[in-house]
Design goal:
Blueprint (H helix, E strand, L loop, with lengths): L4 H18 L2 H12 L3 H29 L1 H21 L3 H30 L4 H31 L6 H9 L8 H19 L16 H8 L2 H32 L3 H26 L5 H21 L2 H15 L2 H10 L6 H10 L3 H15 L2 H6 L2 H13 L11 H6 L1
Helix pairs in contact: 1-5, 1-6, 2-3, 2-10, 2-11, 3-4, 3-5, 3-15, 3-16, 4-5, 4-8, 6-11, 10-11, 10-13, 10-14, 10-15, 10-16, 10-18, 11-13, 12-13, 12-14, 12-18
Length: 417
């Protein structure tokens, strides 16, 4: 099949948008809490509203994709994102915000299901590993940029930089003392542009491999009888809960315990968390060519635990750097858990992938737990709960028994080269 690099570029842009919409929540946490007078438990409901959509929509999206095709589903997904962003930007109340987060989250969950098979077909199977890494780099870049964009908007709107036309426009659209709502007007523009692009684009026909299809009800029943399916589902649940738990609460923690401004230094810390995660992912790719994936998972998890403990109990300077550095060590966890999981079953990989994607709702549940414990104790104690899912991830490095292990280079071959 002829490769369509325009579609590849469009998919990479879609990865950028998904990340831009998703990973800004941590930077927004304190501003949203102040605007709506939220307790920590209520603040935990914000990521819950977003990530629970993955638990609801990941598997149904696969069935809808087979029925309606990529183009219609992409337009629908971005339309949901547009509706959620525009609804809140136009009526910035707490209730509408919760509904908006779920609506946008639903759109993002659908996009995750659609774009991976499309990337394989458009870029070619022989290039899929390379294009997948490119997608993750783009994803990481957007995660770094979006908190910086938030910081730029709120700082300039709050200080009344009306000599800048864009700032003047956004200032006229948002309520006084809620400058962070301007972020959602940016989302409106991005979603609208993506809808237009999708409508005018002709998409290639995607023939799913047998192991990429969502499968039948029987395939799910068969998989759920395999204890490793449940264990790896919990692995993804634990990973996303940890990733979002650190990125979502770090800005508030740095303000609460060390007095760092959440709109500038806190937002920058969140940006560097995602930036270092991207860099760590590149290093992880190299390490996986030398060491067994379970060994890499063990060491990176131990170092991530140490980083989190330093962030929670170290002095302000150490805490400021340890939080982002933890992102570096989290970087390899998701791809390793996914690969170990899929390499641990002989069939129904499409159905299993849907089950694993449902585990992303860990980003919802863990945040509620952190918020609840923070209210009855302290934010530090609440964030210490993240050591539990990290401990579970560490255990995967010991009990996982994949049918196929990652291929590594022999030391003698390395020395010869």
């Amino acid at each position: 099949m002829k490769r369509n690099y325009y579609i590849v570029g469009l998919i990479l842009l879609t990865f950028f948008v998904i990340s831009f919409f998703t990973n800004i929540l941590g930077a927004l946490n304190q501003s949203v809490s102040e605007s709506f007078g939220l307790t920590e438990t209520m603040a935990g409901f914000l990521p819950f509203s977003f990530f629970i959509a993955y638990g609801v929509m990941s598997i149904p999206s696969g069935f809808l994709l087979e029925k309606f095709g990529e183009k219609r589903m992409l337009v629908l997904a971005f339309s949901l994102a547009l509706a959620g962003a525009l609804g809140f930007a136009s009526s910035p109340t707490f209730t509408v915000f919760m509904i908006s987060l779920f609506t946008i989250g639903t759109g993002m969950a659908m996009l995750q299901v659609i774009i991976n098979p499309l990337l394989r077909v458009s870029g070619g199977e022989e290039n899929y590993a390379f294009t997948s890494v490119m997608a993750q780099l783009i994803f990481g870049a957007a995660s770094f940029i979006s908190p910086q964009m938030y910081s730029y908007l709120v700082v300039n709107i709050d200080k009344g930089a009306f000599h800048k036309p864009l700032i003047e426009l956004f200032s006229s659209l948002v309520p006084q003392s809620m400058s962070w709502v301007s972020v959602y007007w940016v989302f409106v523009v991005m979603a609208l542009l993506m809808i237009v692009v999708m409508l005018i684009t002709k998409f290639p026909k995607v023939e799913l491999k047998e192991d990429e299809k969502v499968g039948t009800k029987e395939s799910y029943f068969t998989l759920f009888k395999n204890r490793y399916v449940i264990l790896f589902f919990l692995g993804i649940f634990a990973y996303v809960g940890t990733e979002q738990g650190i990125s979502y609460w770090m800005s508030k923690y740095l303000l609460t315990y060390h007095g760092f401004d959440n709109e500038t230094i806190g937002a920058s810390a969140v940006a560097y968390f995602w930036g270092l995660m991207t860099i760590g992912g590149i290093l992880g790719l190299l390490l996986l060519k030398i060491f067994d994936s379970k060994v890499v998972l063990r060491w990176f998890t131990i170092l991530a635990v140490i980083s989190l403990l330093l962030a929670l109990f170290g002095p302000e300077g150490l805490s400021l750097y340890a939080f982002p550095i933890s992102g570096f060590f989290l970087s390899v966890m998701y791809p390793i858990i996914i690969s170990l999981a899929l390499n641990s079953v002989k069939s129904y990989h499409g159905s299993f992938a849907g089950i694993l994607m449902t585990g992303i709702m860990g980003g919802a549940v863990v945040q509620l737990l952190v918020g609840f414990i923070s209210d009855i104790s302290s934010l530090r104690v609440g964030m210490m709960i993240l050591l539990l899912p990290m401990g579970y991830i560490l255990s995967i490095g010991f009990w996982a028994k994949p049918i196929i292990s990652n291929k590594t280079l022999k030391l003698k071959n390395i020395l010869k080269s």
